[in-house]
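Checked the freezer inventory, then went back to the computational side. Two predictions to log before the end of the day. The first one is the construct we discussed on Monday; recording sequence and tokens without edits.
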Amino acid sequence: MVTKKAQPEEGPNSDKPERLRGTLLNSSEGRVLLLGVALAFAYILWLGVKLLVSPDEFQILIGMTAVDIMFGRAAAMAYGYSVRLGHSTVIPICMIVETILVLIVYPLFVFSWRHLLVVKGLKKVFERINKSAEAHKDKVQKYGIIGLFAFVWFPFWMTGPVVGCVIGFLLGLRVWINIPVVLAGTYLAILAWGLFLNRFATYSSQAAMVLMILLIVIIIAGSLLHGTLRENKDKR
């Protein structure tokens, strides 16, 4: 269930391009990344069709996708329900977006950890993800796979699928266990949020919009507070 902690691997700089090409084709992380890129391409292509067929719906879907990436599933779903989208659109969109995030961010983090591929623009993002994962790792490790599932499912601060799959990696979980557990917890959380948020939309679309704004404010405030506390801790 849980094996020894993964460790970063070093290698000569001259071998990195060859190692990276081999990793993309032969490693589990490489195949996950290729799958994520293919899914992202298919999703973008579908959005392109929506742009041609229904420009108004395209704008809503782009907005929902952006909110999901920036502020998470709850805010994105609240936005979707506030503009009168139904379960059949809101839930699959959030599932697809969060699946793409996991399938792309997870292998890129692993490659960065192993010094195979370092994306400068994502370096600070990966550092924040790593610190958040390290902070919650012991709690998850206590309960193993069930703990990882619950971590992704429960709507607590910094318990999203990206941090969850990094925790699974730090605990040494194999990809074929880590990714399905994280995505299963994510999908169940999305379904739960869908049932909860749709109740607001049935009363009033304004109620869902207010909830979305409130969630965004909480997320931004939480991020600022988390960063301030971390800076103070580092100074000490």
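The second is the one RB wanted added to the comparison set:
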Amino acid sequence: MKIGLIDIGSNTTKILIAEKCSSTNATNFIPIEEVSFPCRLFPKSTIENFEIGTKAIDSLQNCLSQLKQSCEDHCVEEVRTVATEAFRKASNSLQIIEIVKQFNGLEIEVLSGIQEAMAVAKGLQTDPLLKDWMDFIAMDIGGGSVELIHVQDCQVMEAKSLPLGAVRMAQMNQADLNGEMKPEIQSKLVAFLRQFLKSEIPMLGDSHHKVVATGGTLVYLRKLLEKEKRIDTGGSIKLSDIESVSKIMNAFLLEERITRYPQIPPDRADIFPYGLLTVTEVMKYLGVDQITHSFHNLRYGLMYDLMQTTA
């Protein structure tokens, strides 16, 4: 049986198409295709009006049409469509859900922050590289939110969904995102992040747990570090390397980032420094000097559950 899982995020819309297998390993499916389309749902210059505009809706419809076609090309038997932080915050989510159902025939399920966090934890636990990890903190950084999950003895002890995604952090910057991230902006955001983390996850401060992370910011950071041969196949990333990349990115105009670092898609280059800033501050708050990146994300966790319930 083949299943297509569409994930509508704040900055990209993605799909995982997989086929059920009888493996006794952690993963009960085989990935067939993973595709991601740029589709930013909120204007990058404002945070006050959480309404998804007409242009963004049209872009989303186009993405969903292409992803639905991919499902048809692979003879998928079931399609599930989920949305996360952007739809949780948007004032017109219900209208968009109806529009998508009417024109694309897809029914969007809006995950709660806790549902998203739990699925991230389950997805990471399907990664063979993490099979011996019993106690750790999982971090998933998206466009709208950051999920932090404390896993102990392979069980989720605490899960938090925080509005600290790369797009959300960029929206807090009222300056032009085409420019460099100036020191005063960095200082403002660092102060905000430190206070927010202290108030929202006080029990995890300086916990020094092993940390595994997923999300677009980590994917493209890994690409940069792999090109410079500063990361091993296990996906271990040092805080010092993240800070080094962050310092370079902050000093460049958007056009320079795009030109010098083609590994980063243009639609992500403007928010990339903000994602890096969030990752570094979370790491410092947790008291760790390295993290392990995994490709087994939210979609892997949701797909695992879907395969469990199919005949």
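For RB: The chain is about 45% helix and 20% strand. The mean pLDDT is 91. Let me know if you want it refolded.
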